[in-house]
Amino acid sequence: MTSKPTPPDGLVIVDKPPGFTSHDVVAKMRGIARTRRIGHAGTLDPMATGVLVLGVERATKLLGHLALTEKEYLGTVRLGQTTVTDDAEGEITSSTDASQVTRDAVDTAIAKLTGDIMQVPSKVSAIKINGVRSYKRAREGEEFDIPARPVTVSSFTVYDLREAVADDGTPVLDLVVSVVCSSGTYIRALARDLGADLGVGGHLTALRRTRVGPYKLDAARTLDQLQQELTVMPIAEAATAAFPRWDVDARRARLLTNGVRLDIPDEYAGTGPVAVFGPEGRFLVLVEEQRGKARSLAVFG
């Protein structure tokens, strides 16, 4: 009896199709890679497309650290209509003529949503309020508030303004935007808040994630392409792309993989996770600096 081949440890960069939840993509990939040991780094709404980072086998241990990295999006914001979900998936709750909104007014409002801001996530998000998912409370018609959270919007750029008419006859304004932001930022909440500030309401009609940390769309593969050929970024390559690299000798390698807190060079202080490689170039362990010592986060070698 031949045993089935073990899938390689590493990352799969998926170009998520519309209509799929992140969990749907994981389920599909479990079939393609023939393993249950697959997870994802940060969800993407069903409406959205683009970069979804999956970990296969031991690389699942990287995911929690990758989920905290910066993300980049291309999207379309419709000014003039609000929806219950802050995106095109939900029913329209108000319509206001947006034809008088000027580019200057848009730029001023966007400036207020750039930098370090406090953001209230959408009520139909996966945020937990007292242990219950926000979207579950919203579906059950419950009245509740979500506390604002600090997020960073490094850049929020408008590429194009297009006048349009919504299905109900309301003159609206569609903005093609790009956003670079910290983990935990909701783009549909930016659309909602932009519309609210301009007095006409707003929601997100399209969203494509073009980057998660160092992993970009050009490295992503569709599920159909992955079905034809499973493309896995080796775990060492993935770690090198995402984290600072610290090469150590055999003695240090052995001690670090056993959880011994060795002195860590000053250059890694405050950098977050650091990927440790042994003398043969093998990826061994993920550590972080704590009081000048290397604290182990996850062991791979």
From TrEMBL:
* Catalysed transformations (reactions): uridine(55) in tRNA = pseudouridine(55) in tRNA
Residue ranges of the Pseudouridine synthase II N-terminal domain?
A: 31-187
MF (Gene Ontology): tRNA pseudouridine(55) synthase activity
Instruction: Give the residues annotated as active site.
Output: 45
Keyword check for Iron: no
The organism's taxonomy opens as:
Bacteria, Bacillati, Actinomycetota, Actinomycetes, Kitasatosporales
The organism's place on the tree of life at top rank: Bacteria
- InterPro entries registered for this protein in UniProt: PsdUridine_synth_cat_dom_sf, PsdUridine_synth_N, PUA-like_sf, PUA_sf, tRNA_psdUridine_synth_fam2_C, tRNA_psdUridine_synth_TruB, TruB_C
Q: Which residues form the tRNA pseudouridine synthase II TruB subfamily 2 C-terminal domain?
A: 243-300
Q: Which UniProt keywords apply?
A: Isomerase, tRNA processing
Q: Where is the tRNA pseudouridylate synthase B C-terminal domain?
A: 188-230
Entry similarity comment: Belongs to the pseudouridine synthase TruB family. Type 1 subfamily.
Output this protein's name: tRNA pseudouridine synthase B
Instruction: Give the EC number(s) listed in the UniProt record.
Output: 5.4.99.25
State the protein's purpose.
Responsible for synthesis of pseudouridine from uracil-55 in the psi GC loop of transfer RNAs.
| Origin species | Streptomyces kebangsaanensis
